[in-house]
Amino acid sequence: METTLKKVSDVVYELEVDASADELSGELKAALRRQRGQTEMKGFRPGKVPLGLVKRMHGRALAFGIAEQKVQEAFRTEILEKDEYDVLGQPSLTTLDYEMDGDLHAVIRFGVRPELELQDVTGEKLSRLKREITEEDVDEQVERLRRENAELVPVEEAEIDEGFHVVLDLQRIDEESGTPVIGEKEEDVEFFVDDERLHDALRDGLLGKTAGDTFEADLPHGDDEHRHTHRYRITIKDAKRRELPELDDAFVGDVTKDQFATVEELKQNMRENLEEAWEQRSRELLEGRIVERMLELHTVPVPDSAVELYLDSFVEDVKQRGEGKLPEGFDEGAFRDANRGEAERQAKWMLIRDAFIEREGLEVTEEDLDAYFEDAAGGNDELSPQMIQQYYQSMNMIERIEQQLLSRKTFERLGELFEIEDRSLEAFEEEEAQRRETASAQESAPSSLITPSG
C-alpha cells in the first residue's frame, strides 16, 4: 500500500491511498473463508458452501469493508499517530475508486490547525458598561412587585386610566363600508392599560372610557417590512381598577414566604440582584467586544472540517430542544447554509482562543475545580461540593466545566492586556449605535472602498 500527502492549502491536506489488487486479494480470501464458516444454505452442510458461491453472495460487501478498513488504517498510521498534524474535525473521503478484485485508489481530505501569530493587544482600548444601581431602580422593582400582587377591584362607571385592567372584543371592520369582516374577531383580550407593549392608538382610545363603551381605532398589522394598519371596532367588556397592596413588613413577609422580614431587607436583596444582573450583562458585553476585536486583528484560515464541527453542534442543539428529534419538515441543508457564517466565526475564535491559551500557559487546576463546586453548592447543607462533582463526573461533564473555567481565565487575562474604559449606560448605548451604523455602512459600500481592519 502506498500513500501520498498533498497540501491543498495552509489548513487543508489530502492523503492519497493506493493498493494493488494483489495486496488486497489475500485479505479478501481470508474474509471469504470466515464468511463461509458462518454461511448456511440449503443443500450444503454448515461451513461447506462453495467459496465461489460465497463470493457471489457476500464478496462485494466484504471487499468494500476491507477497502474502507485499509483507508482508515492508512489515515491512522500516516496522520493521526504522527505529531506533525493537528487534525481538526472529521476527515472526509472525497474519492473511493475501487471494484472487487481491482486496484484501490482513495483520497481523504482533512483539515489541520493553522499556525497563528498572535497580535500584541497591550493597551488596545475597549469599552465596558458600568451601570450604577440607584434608589429609583430599586423602587421600580418594588413597584413591579406590588403590581404583580395587586387586587383587581370592580368599579362602576369609572373612567379608565393607566391603573386599570380591561377585557376587550376586537372586531376588524371594512374601512369603506364600515361593516364587520367575517372571521376576523378576537374575543376576551385582556391586559393592563399601562403595559409597555400596548399600541399607543389602543391605549389612547381606552383612556377616559368606561366598561360597555365601544370605539374604533387603527391598529398596526404585519411585520416591519410590510407594516400597515387595520380598522377595528373595540368593545370594552370589563374594566377593573388595580389596587396596590400597602408596602409594609407584612406584605414583604407574605410575598417572599418569610424569606425577608422587612421592607429594607427586601430592597437590599433587590439591589444586590440588580447589581449582579448588570455585572453579568457588563461582563458578557465586554467578552463579546474582546472576541470581536481579536477577530478583527487576526486573519485566521479555517478548514471546512472545523466549520462543519460547529454546524453539527448547531443541529444537535435544535435536536435537543426538540426532545432528541429535529422538527417535522426541518430543512437541515438550508439551516446549515444560513448558519455557516456564524459557525466560521466561532471556529475562528476557537482557534485564536486555543493559541492564546497555549501562549499564556493557562490551565485549570484541581483548586479551580474545587472552588467551582464549592460555589455551586452555595453553602447547601444537603448538597455538598463533593456530591455535585460526583454528579458531573457520572454525566461525563467535567471536561465541559473545565472548558468553561478555561474560557473564564482566557477573558480575565485578555482583560488585563486590553485597556478597559468604563462607560455609562447612555455613553455605551451611543457607542453601540455608532458601531452598528459603521458596520452597516461597510456592508453596503462597494468592496473596493472598504479598508481591511487590523
Helix/strand layout:
Blueprint lengths: L1 E6 L4 E8 L1 H18 L12 H30 L6 E11 L6 E9 L12 E5 L5 H14 L2 E4 L9 E10 L6 E13 L7 H7 L7 E8 L6 E16 L5 H7 L7 H35 L6 H18 L10 H7 L1 H21 L5 H12 L7 H10 L3 H20 L1 E5 L1 H20 L10
Parallel strand pairs: 5-11
Antiparallel strand pairs: 1-2, 2-4, 3-4, 6-10, 7-8, 7-10, 9-10
Protein described:
The protein is α+β, with helices and mostly antiparallel strands. It folds into three domains: 2-112, Trigger factor ribosome-binding domain (Alpha-Beta Plaits), CATH 3.30.70; 151-243, Chitinase A, domain 3, CATH 3.10.50.40; 263-449, Trigger factor, C-terminal domain (Trigger factor, domain 2), CATH 1.10.3120. The chain contains 13 helices and eleven strands. The strands form three sheets. Strands 6, 7, 8, 9 and 10 form a five-stranded antiparallel beta sheet that branches. Strand 3 and strand 4 (104-112) form a beta hairpin. Helix 1 crosses helix 2 and helix 10 packs across helix 11. It starts with a strand and ends in a 10-residue tail after the last helix.
Number of helices: 13
| Beta content | 15-25%
Largest sheet: 5 strands, antiparallel
Reading off the top of the CATH hierarchy, the class of the largest domain is best stated as Mainly Alpha
From the 3D coordinates, which CATH architecture of the largest domain would you assign?
Answer: Orthogonal Bundle
Number-wise, the strands total: 11
How far do the termini sit from each other? 47 Å
SS class: alpha+beta
Approximate shape: extended
The pLDDT mean sits at 91
